[in-house]
């Protein structure tokens, strides 16, 4: 979205039929710039290029164009992107295999694949494929975990990790407790789908939100 908006050479006037006031098209490139710079900086600091695989399982020209546009944009920011052209028969197994592959850090699937074809689990079969992507590798925030958390206003993904604190481990050993204890970790933020997230960042950059109001009500009266 940022690339497409940034490609406009000049802002075109817009007019609201309700207010009669003239506005202008906001270019996304300056808004996206700090986020892209942060991404590049993190990749440089860690010394590892994240690897994302994208599965294209249809002959839709728009999906094909979007897939190659995605590849170009990600690689500009130092992210490795492997576009895999597959079939509607194989895409489910391909996604499950990528879930288990430790060299894959993120998964994208380009839709539509099955369109409105119903699925055995309810909803469409495209929705089923979307939910096959593990929450750890869902880079679009569209799997069931992220959708449910968004609906319930849950901001973080809760995980439980083995305690590694040396003093705690020594105390357990001294007490003769040979077991693994886990601690709650809520440091990972939930992902939001890219389009609404982009809208939020644009509104923030334009100072539309009233920061004196509580979260969730900062557009009140606008």
Task: Report on the architecture of this protein.
With 222 residues, the protein is an alpha/beta fold. Helices cover 39% and strands 17% of the residues. The protein is built from eight helices and seven strands. It has helices spanning 2-6, 29-46, 61-76, 91-100, 125-132, 144-151, 166-174, 194-205, and strands at residues 13-15, 22-24, 51-56, 80-85, 106-110, 156-162, 182-189. The longest helix is centred in the first third of the chain and has 18 residues, at 29-46. Residues 1-12 have low confidence and may be disordered.
Which SSEs are present, and which pair or pack?
Blueprint lengths: L1 H5 L6 E3 L6 E3 L4 H18 L4 E6 L4 H16 L3 E6 L5 H10 L5 E5 L14 H8 L11 H8 L4 E7 L3 H9 L7 E8 L4 H12 L17
Parallel strand pairs: 3-4, 3-5
Antiparallel strand pairs: 1-2, 6-7
- Fraction of residues in helices? 25-40%
Number of strands: 7
Question: Count of helical segments?
Answer: 8
| Cα Rg | 22 Å
Write down the oligomeric state: single chain
**Structural class of the secondary elements?**
alpha/beta
Low-confidence stretches: 1-12
Reading the helices and strands in chain order gives HEEHEHEHEHHEHEH
What is the typical, i.e. mean, pLDDT? 86
Amino- and carboxy-terminal Cα gap? 25 Å
- The 3D shape can be described as globular
The biggest sheet, with number of strands, parallel, antiparallel or mixed sense and barrel status, is: 3 strands, parallel
Strand order of the biggest β-sheet = 4-3-5
Roughly what fraction of the amino acids lie in strands?
A: 15-25%
């Amino acid at each position: 979205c940022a690339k497409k908006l940034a490609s406009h050479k000049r802002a075109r006037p817009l007019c609201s039929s309700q207010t009669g006031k003239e506005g202008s098209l906001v270019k996304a490139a300056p808004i996206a710039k700090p986020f892209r710079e942060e991404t590049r900086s993190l990749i440089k600091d860690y010394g590892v290029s994240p690897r994302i695989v994208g599965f294209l399982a249809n002959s839709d020209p728009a999906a094909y164009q979007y897939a190659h546009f995605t590849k170009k944009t990600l690689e500009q920011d130092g992210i490795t992107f492997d576009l895999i052209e597959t079939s509607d028969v194989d895409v489910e197994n391909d996604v499950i295999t990528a879930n288990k592959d430790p060299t894959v850090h993120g998964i994208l699937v380009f839709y539509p694949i099955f369109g409105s074809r119903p699925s055995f689990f309810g909803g469409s079969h495209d929705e089923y494929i979307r939910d096959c992507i593990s929450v750890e590798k869902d880079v679009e925030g569209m799997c069931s975990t992220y959708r449910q958390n968004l609906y319930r206003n849950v901001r973080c993904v809760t995980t439980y990790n083995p305690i590694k604190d040396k003093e705690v481990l020594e105390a357990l050993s001294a007490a003769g407790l040979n077991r693994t204890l886990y601690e709650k970790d809520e440091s990972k933020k939930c992902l939001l789908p890219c389009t609404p997230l982009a809208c939020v960042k644009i509104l923030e950059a334009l100072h539309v939100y009233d920061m004196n109001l509580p979260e969730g009500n900062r557009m009140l009266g606008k």
